[in-house]
């Protein structure tokens, strides 16, 4: 009897396991959601688009990705009226090339972790109330420009 029970359980598991799809959000997506937690005000266009049940953030508002790897290459949130701080999680977006957070209400200083985005080519932060210095080694990146 135990043998048949074992066979039945194994069969049941194979049916359930092959028909259950589990999606998990990519590392870049988790990073963006974590970054959003530092914001005091987020417009509905972002809060409804940025969804933890997606597998990648590539279809989210303001996000540009590599078509093959689905890594985040650009974050363009210019003019969305976001207020809050830019969290240190920004440094986890290792493939980030373009960051445009202009015309919002970001405040505080730029996190040093932004220096971890070694592929960053363009950084646009005007029309915010940011203070402090831009991390020194950003200027050392190849093709980097501060707009």
Automatic annotation (TrEMBL):
Annotated organism of origin = Morus notabilis
InterPro entries of this UniProt entry? Leu-rich_rpt, LRR_dom_sf, LRR_N_plant-typ
Q: Which SUPFAM superfamilies match?
A: L domain-like
What broad taxonomic lineage does this protein's source fall under? Eukaryota, Viridiplantae, Streptophyta, Embryophyta, Tracheophyta
Q: What is this protein called?
A: Receptor-like protein kinase
Segments forming domain Leucine-rich repeat-containing N-terminal plant-type: 28-66
Pfam families found in the cross-reference section: LRR_1, LRRNT_2
Q: Which residues does UniProt assign to the signal peptide?
A: 1-17
Q: Where in the cell is it found?
A: Membrane
Primary localization class, coarse? membrane
């Amino acid at each position: 009897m135990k043998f048949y029970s074992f066979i039945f359980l194994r069969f049941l598991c194979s049916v359930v396991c092959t028909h259950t799809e589990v999606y998990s959000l990519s590392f870049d997506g988790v990073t963006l959601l974590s970054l959003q937690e530092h914001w005091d005000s987020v417009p509905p266009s972002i809060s409804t688009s940025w969804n933890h049940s997606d597998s990648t953030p590539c279809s989210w508002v303001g996000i540009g990705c590599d078509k093959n790897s689905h890594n985040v290459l650009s974050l363009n949130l210019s003019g969305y009226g976001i207020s809050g701080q830019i969290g240190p999680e920004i440094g986890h977006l290792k493939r980030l090339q373009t960051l445009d957070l202009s015309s919002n209400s970001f405040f505080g200083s730029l996190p040093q972790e932004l220096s971890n985005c070694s592929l960053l080519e363009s950084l646009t932060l005007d029309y915010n109330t940011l203070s402090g210095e831009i991390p020194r080694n950003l200027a050392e990146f190849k093709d980097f420009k501060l707009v």
